[in-house]
Structure formats: C-alpha cells, structure tokens
User: Fold these one by one.
Assistant:
Number 1:
Amino acid sequence: MKAMLQLRQSQKLTLTPQLCQAISLLQLSTQGVEQEVARMLDENPLLECEDVSAVTPGALGGATSIGLPGKREITETLPQQHTSEEVKEDNWGVDYFPVEGSPDDESRCHAEASTNGPSLREHLILQLSVSQHSTRDCKIIGLLIDALDENGYLTQSLEEIVEMLPKQLNVTLNDAETALVQLQQLDAPGIAARSLSECLALQLKALPEDTAGRDVALRLVTQHLKLLAAHNFVKLKKYLRCGDDVLRTAQSLVAHLQPRPGAEFEQRIGDYVIPDVIVERRHGSWHARLNKSAIPRLQINQLYANILQQSTEANTSQLANKLQEARWFIQNLQKRFDTILCVSQAIVRHQTNFFEHGESAMRPLVLQEISSQLDLHESTISRATTQKFMLTPRGIYELKYFFCGGVGTTDGDVRSSMAIRTLIRQAIEQEPAHHPLTDERMSEMLAQQGIVIARRTVAKYRELLKIPPANLRKLL
C-alpha cells in the first residue's frame, strides 16, 4: 500500500465553551438563571448590573446597545476595538429590563402560595392557655400536642408517650388518657385521633345531636368505613338497616368531614412561578412578549474595560479573559430569551384556538413542527420549553403543556389528546351521580363525535385527570 498525503475538506461542529454555556442557560428555569447571574456577578469583576438611574444608552464611550425589540435597551460597555464586530453579529433587537420591574402586570406574575396564620401547635397552645385545666394537666396536654404529626394525628401509642415523659411528672397511663380526651375537645374537631375512623368519629360527635344522619354516619365511620370507601351500598343498607335516603344523608355528612384536621394549619411556603412570556390579545390577534420582570439587566464594567483598553502590559491576559467571558455571558443570555420568545410566538400562532376557546379546542402539536418552522433542532425546542412558563388570560402554563399528540377522527380531522381529555372530564362532570359513565360508555360517546379510541385509552386519559373509575364515583 502506497503512503500518500490527501487534502480533504469537511465540516464539523465543535462544542466550544461558549456553546456549552448557551446550551446550559437555555435549559435553566428563570430561578436558575437568576442564580447563574448572581454567580457570574460574584466571580467576574467585568460584569455588573446596570444602574438604570445612572446609565443611559449612549452615555458611555464605546458603548454597544444590545437588546430585544421593545422600548429600552441594555448597554454593554466594551473597549472600542471590540465593539464593531459584536454589534454586527449580535443585533438581537431584544429589550432588557430590571429584575424588579414596574408596578404593572409583571409585578403580579409572582404566584406564591403561603399561609401566614398560626401553626397547629400555636393554635392548640393558645386555647390551652385560656382553659380551666390545672397546671399539671396543661403540661401533659402540651406534651401530647408536641407528639402530633402535621396532619393532627397522634401516631405514637400512649404507652410510648408515657415512657418518654419526665419521671418527675409522675404521669400514669390513666393521666395520659384523660389528657388525650381533653386535647380532643379543643378546636379543630378530629385533632389528636389515632386513626382515620377515630378522626371522623370525633368530628361527628362534635356536631349537634339532632343533626340529620349523625347517628348513622357514626356507625359508618366506626364499623363500615371500608364498605363506604368501596361504595358497597347494598351491604351498607343491609348492615345498617336503613333506606336510601338515610344512607344518602349519612354519606353526604361523612363526605364533608376533614380527614386531615391539621392540614389547614400547615405553614406552606410554596414555590413561586415567574412567567417567562406573557400572552396578550392586541388588535384582534394574540401576541407573545417577554416578561420584563424575568430579564436581568447587565453590562460590562466600564472602569475595568477602560483599564484593559489603555494597558500595554502583558500581564492583563486574565482581565482580558474575564472581559471575554462577560461578553459571552451577555450574548448567550440574549440568545436564551430570543429563543424562548421565538418558540413562544410559534406556539401562540399554532394554538390560537386554545386562547380563544380553551382546552377543548387545542390542536395537536409536536416538537418537530416548531423545529421545522424555526429551523432549530428538536433538542433546542425541548430545552426552550422545559421549566419555562407562559402567562395567559386562562392561567399560567408551562410551554411544554401546549405540546400533545393527536387522534384521527372519522371525518379526516385530528383532535389533540388534550382536547379529548377535556371532553372526558366534561362528560364526567355532567354524568348522573347515581349512574356514572363507564370507560366503555365514554368510548362509545366519543365515537359518536367521530373520535374512535379504545376503552383502555379512555381509562388512561381518565387516570391522567386523576378521576376514579365509575364504581368509585357512584353515589347513592
């Protein structure tokens, strides 16, 4: 074999650090981006938050305006010799705004669930402090309160609790049982129960004695709770020796009880969602725009940039690297928001019927359709829609929510799986309580509308909606 040199031309994609950072930023949530921005501000002295009151576009020499389409611009201050190429390459035309935002609709985008009321323990201790119990009894009851779980149940046996109590209190099992009864008489009803049956029974006993169905309901929760959960009304009427009306009243009474009496006192600090995109109706059509509150406003530190520009020393390479990193970060941050906006606009164009009529009008949509339309890879679309949220007049949705498969109809149309699930939910909401629709019956009803799907598909959609089967939805 003869050895020879060959010249071959080829193309390949190299995963540079800049590209890695762009991919990483795109897949982060808004909270993740905030954390990454904070980290970069700590590590890179060339990067800083822009002071809106002190900096105006064009006020600094050698400043480059880079931004998304809108009313204001972000100012990236760069050394003069580095600006022209970057302006030409990165004229994204996207707006950057302070994280704080203004007192408009963006300020209401932070949906945070929290309860600021007293905790379960505080609620019970407050009642105990104004009760007529002796000091010793209050101490024992207070120790039992500390043993309650977050649902208000006493999960430890009284014997175990007595063993753990300080010996100097000289508490007997009878003392603990008496204290438990006194604790169970406090608000909220059902507190300090040792089982679900006891919890429900305590709540029923707290009702007036002349409450309709109270006695039968007590027998239901203390003797036949499993039959009630299985909706076995035939056996219940036999064991309770009552008619339909009496059993129906008792069942309704039990249904309104609280199985977790301590849950309402839980201190919840829920995760809040900051929408990346806001959808509005303007001039008769739907438009997507970026949420100003979710976009950080960054710039290059002018002081360090000028020092680097004027320096002739060779030991400024580290500062030059930091400058390049800051420029990359600002550019990649812009690309992230630009990509999210483009994908969101494509989703809005495709799902216009959803914004007009709701879930039942949602069209089938897969990543490949948006990918082809925007000339982006499917993985890019996936990253741009994961943990990114859209605020609409119908609520806040993750961008991935708008992607769903489709089912062909007999008239040649295609209905989205989301629309079919909505039809199933609406049918169940309108079903007669004493004769709920089976999965087979719903399959037949959908077939009458031209949507032919199997019973097991209906069952799968119903389970996704967290709706129990027909036998568990049946009421007497």
Note: The two ends are 90 Å apart (CA to CA).
Number 2:
Amino acid sequence: MSEISNNKKIYQSSELLNLIKLDVQKLGRPYHKLPKLLKSCFDLIDVNFVCYFLKKYRMNISLEDIQFNADCVDKNVEVYGNEAGHIGFDLDRFLLLNILNDYYGLNRDDIASLLPNLKSPDELTQSNIVPSKTEERLKNKLGIELSQVILNQEKFGKQLESRTEHSVMIGKWAYRISFILAGGKGAFHLFLDSGNVDRLLNALRHPQEFGTLKSYAVLTKANGGQGASTNMLETLPVKLYGKLSSLTLTLSQLMELKKGRILPISLPDSIPLFVGKQQIFSAMIAEDRGKLFFSEFQDITSEIKHD
C-alpha cells in the first residue's frame, strides 16, 4: 500500500502559510517593478537632492539608499494632491530640526532648549513633544518641494505640481518609499496612492524615450552632442568618483595577508572618473600643499576610435 500524503490542501485559520494575497485592482499592473524603476533613477535623484539641500538650506546631504514597502497604513502624514491622485510625506523629526538649525541659524543650545533631555533620534521620535508652528510650516514646504523633485523626473512624463490638501484623510497607501540619507542624518518617506504609482509605471510602457544610458546616447546623437548626461552635469554639484588603483590577487595570496603588511601598488598615468556608475572622464593626479587633486581632464568620448 502506498503511504498517505501529508501535504495539506485545507488549512485552519491559525495554520495559514505566508501567502501573497492577490489584489484585484493590481492585476495586470506591474506594481512589483516600481522599486527597480525608481532605483534606476538613483543617481539622478541623488544629484537633485544634493543641489536642492545645498542651494536651499546650505546642507551637504546625499542619498544612501531607497527602501520600499507596499500597502502601508499611516494616517499621520502630510497629504498633497496632484493631477494623478494623492501623495503623502513624512520625515524624521531629528532631521527636520537639523534643517531648521541650518536654515534659521539655530545653535545646539537653542535646539536643546526646545527639546530638553533628548539626545538621540530614537528618543526624539518616541517623544510626545508637540511640534512648533515653524516645524509644521517647514515640513509642509519640504513635502511639496521634495515630492516634486522625486516625481518630476524626465522619464515620468509631464511634470505635476503638488498642493496641500488639508481636508483629505488617507489611511492606506499603495507604496511607501523611504529615502535614507548618508551619514546617519535620518530619512524621509513618500507615500503614493494607486494613481501616482500608475503614473510612474507608465514609464515602463515607453522605455525608449527616457532614463537609460542607451537613451542618453540617442538623445546626444539627436541633439548634436547635447544629451541628457550633459543636462545632468549642468545641475552641479556632481560627485566624481575616481578609481586610483587596483590589484589582482589569487585566493591563496588573500589568505596569506596579515595585518600590517604593505602591498606595492603603482598609480596609473590616467585615472578613470565616474559619475555614479558611468565613466565620464579620465584625469591625472596632482599634488598641491599636501593634498591630491584631479587635473588635466579628458572626455572619454573624444578617445573613442571609429573605423
């Protein structure tokens, strides 16, 4: 006799497996591709953040990571409206106070007087101290401007203006997008309803127009050399990353390495420079007053040989 299978097909409510529930409204819509879509714009969003905070608040802020959560419930957010639907905004209060510090020139003693006995961001988040009117106004301003910086990327089509919606209460959001800032400076969160998610996903139906390195080359060729990469460089400041040197070792050589060992490495004549992951220039290394600088920049496009 064959053994009876132990595979269950009927479960009690207490024994349910971790199954993904299908939402009828999402059928036929690639909601799962939104993280990949936005992360493809990571470098452009980072450049826009650097420019925004540097020009508006004289702060050196850059993006470290983008995290995503679907079907989030949160009623305590700032709600804004646009032509596509509604969006929500929230940020760490510790970050908000640091922006206030740089924007209005508050010193640490002033912040300490506003929030006594609170020293860490976690304690600040868990506190019940009511935000001031100045904090609320700045938070509303940040929500409108940052949402437009993120959602009005060229690849997403027509630019939309955000407006404050005081009378609208939304509890459930299709997506929460968390923007983690480098250096442990905090994070802010953007909440999207289904209308705004559909607007972003619409870019997947027209991928040939915007957003990829291939499209940069097409736009550059069509515009006589003035492409999307040039437009990005015009929105300075841009971070240049240089690869000074590299050394190839076998696994056995790596296993033999010990603390304090000095490896002989020679610098190449030309250093490749990157904006994000794309190499743009090559340059020389120069020393002045004990500091190293990049000099004698060369555009790599001028070095390409054509048959």
Note: The first helix runs from residue 34 to 39.
Number 3:
Amino acid sequence: MPQKKLEPPDGGWGWMIVVAFSINYSMSIPMMQLFGLIFGPKLETLGLSATDISIIINTNQAFGMLMGLVNGVLLKKLGFRKVAFIGSCCVSTGIILSAFSRTFATFLFTYGIVYSLGSGMGTSAFSFALNTYFLKRRSKALGIALSISGLGPIFMPQLVTHLLNLYGDTGAVLILGAVASHVFIATALLQPVGYHMKTVEEVEDVQEISKSELEKPLRERRASHPGHRPPRKTSITKSSLSIDHDIDSSSIYGFDSQNLSRSRASLNFDTTADQKQSRYNSYSSLASVDEGTTDIDNLGNGKLEIVSEKVEVEDDNESGNEKKEKDDNALVLCLKYILDIFDLNLLTDPVYVNIMLGMSIAIFSEINFSMLTALILTEFGLSTDRAATFMSLLAIVDLIFRFLSPYIGDYLNKPPRIMYMISLVFLAATRFLFIIVRGYPLLLVSAVGLGVAKGLRTIYMNLVIPAYVPLERLPGASGIQMVTNGVFFILGGPFLGFIKDISGTYRKCVVLMNFLTLLTVVMWSLEIIIVKIRSKRSLDSNRIH
C-alpha cells in the first residue's frame, strides 16, 4: 500500500512568498546602492573625508557579511518569519535614524551597522522562505523573484531624485524609511510552510529494502558463524563492577576505570564451584603482586572484594593521567567540531583557496565601485537628475543581460569560471572607459557597457564555487567566502578612501579597482595553466609506466 508524505506546495501560497521576496529586495536593497546619491551632498556639507565615507560604506557591507554565519543559527531557532520581522525593523529604523545623522559616528552606527544588520537578516530570511516553499519549481520561482526585484534599482534612483528636489535630504530619507517599512507587509506574507504542505502518495520501490531488514539477517549470519564470539558486556555502577572474568589482570585491578580509584572493587560472578575455585586462584595470584596487601573479605556469597592501598595510589595517578587525556581529547574534539561545522578543511585545497581569494578581491572591487558610482558622477559634475538616469540605464541593461547570460554561456560552451573571467575583463574595460570619457552621451555608452558586464558577472559569480565544491560542502564554502569578503571590506575600504583624499579624485580609486579585478583573472589563469601542465605530466607518466 503506497504511503503518504508531505511536500512543499511548489506553488499556491508559494507565489505570495515570491511577491514578498521581491518587495524586500525592491524596497530595502537599493538603498544600499543609492547611498552616494542620497547622502553625497549632505556628507560634503558635513565635511566628512573620503576615508570616512569609505569606512561607512565598507562597514555596511562587511557587517552584513560577517553576520551571515549567525543568521543561519537564528533561522534554525526562530524561523524565517521572526527573523524577517526583526530584519525589517532594523532596516526601517536604520534608514530613519540616518536622516538625523550629523557625524561620522552616527552614520557609522545607523547606516553601517543597524541598516546592514537588518538587510542581511532580511535577505537570509526571505531566501530561506523561498527555498522552503519550492522544491521542483525552485529555479523558476527564484528567476521570477529576481526579475521583479530588478525593477527596484531602475525606479528607485528616479524616486530618490524627485524626493530630494521636493523635500531635501532629511525629508527624502524619512520618506524612504517609510517606503522601506512596507517590508513589514512582505513579512506578514511569510506564513509557516506547515500551513500549506500538500499530501502526496509515495511510490514504493519493490527493490528497496529497509535498513533494519538488511541488518537483521546480517546479525543472524554472524551469530551462526562458527568463529563468532558474542560481545562481552561490562556494566559499571557506583557501588560495584560486574565484569567478564576472562579479561586481563590490568582490568581486574581497575586501571581502566576511574570509578575504582579511592573505592572498593566488588567483582561479582555467578558460576559453578569449579569456576569459582579457579577464579579464586587467579585473584589470589594477582593479589600476591602487592605483597599481601589484598584481603579476601567474602567468597562464599559469590563476591570477591579487593582492598589495596597500593592500588588506590596507582589508581589516583592513573585517574589524573586519564583526566588530562580527557581534557586533551575534549580540546581536540572541540577543534574538530569547529572544523567540521564550518568545513574549514576546505582551506587545505589550494585550488579552492585560489578561487575563494579571487572571488573576494573581485567582489570587493565591484561592490565598492557600485557604491561609489553616484559620488564619482557628482565629481564629474553631473546633476542629480542625470546621475539618476545613468544609474537607471545601467540597471535596465543589467536586468536584460541577466536573462541573456545563460544563453550566451550555452553558445560559448564555457564553464562558469571562464565566463566569470570574461565578464571581469569586460568590466575592467568599461570602467576604464567610464573614467576617461568626456561628455554625457559617452557616459551613457559606458553605462550600457557596465550593465552588460554586471549582468554577466551577477549570474556566473554565483556559479563559480558550486561548480568546483561538492554540494554537501557548499554551505561551508559559502560561509568561508562571506567571512573572507567581510575581512576584505574592513581592511581594504579605508585604503580606497585614503587614495581619494591624497589624490583628490576617485579616478585613482577606479584604477586600483581595475587592477584588483584583473589580478583575479591573472591568479585564476595561472592556476588553470599549472593544473593543466601537471595533469599532462601525470598522464604522460602513466603512459610510460
């Protein structure tokens, strides 16, 4: 008879989860990219240096990434609905409080920490909810959600520009905080998946045998084998030790048991008279090792009690050694647990380390460029309206090429890492065009090029590590990647601001970003060449032998 089981709805209320996912990404995430457009004039009026601005931006990125490991624990303990609600509170609170920020410290706290914490928690919660509601149609649901979310970066720059013209920076930020509070509606849509699970009939495979059915005949075959010996059973209690009497003498003295030190050992046995006599002789010979310090209390009841001062001293020493060994073992187990839970053994793989470092370098360059784009356009002398048009055009082309990227990859028939390297080269070239062109029309051309490169990069960036790391080790690899990204943002962010302060222009910062982007391409190219050479040598060596 077919059994019934519960499965995610793969539709139904799941489409409302898609809507909730899109609302969160459209309302809260673009605020991160529009920092320069919103606060640029205000920061200049307050006299904050480029280093200060860079620290605020990179703290925002780093804090959210470093909290990625904690978000997983919160999702397990609280569930995605509560985590999303907490994240929504932090997002709207961080934006509203930043409207009243007047110093570096307050911007760092409101935008760099509070808002970052909320956006990170919200992103994790809504992504987890989407993956929970969809199983077979997960890729389709994610594609629809990301497509709708892509509309946010297109329209938000225009909205921000309109609000700045009408209400100024403080009023505009307050309204944007109210807009971000609409994520609470999305949070309310995150109903527990148990409400919508569907019941399906599980088709049983006639060739499938349960584990218990396989183990049972195996135990029977072992028992019937001529050389089979049943396992020896040992039970230890606080008052006595009942053991098999075929064991060696060290176990009889209790050197293997901490419970026997400072106590009296009672060896219980229930045997025939001949067995009792032979065992009594064995105990007597063992006791004679201690030069008569052993006293036979009672043998008639079938119980032998050994009291020995020397044994107690040796047991105390042995117990101390065992305690030290247990402490050492506990430390080893703790370290092993940390290695296993975060899968830090991946760091012993040089290819993975090279991929991970290259990804972190490229991500650091790309996100910093995205966050500083509005400030760079302001430095070029563009008005807020023209800067918003530039960013909207970039977002439109980015969205289009997110759709086209898989087809381009299929046509070129290249692995994800090669496609990502191609996008990085194109990205560096268009950034170089961006800083050397003069005139607004040419800047719009560079915006189209940046959108193409960004669309390709966005798709294949998420496929590089999964293409190399096995699926079961992917969570650990992703966690290591996020922490490494956070470290790069913390250490590298202030350096970009320092370069702007000493050079007086963001163009030098873009040159450094291009250098780091191409460094990733060089690192990966060298690794691919070395691996191919070694593989060829190994193949030639095998042919010779």
Note: DSSP finds 21 helices and six strands in the chain.
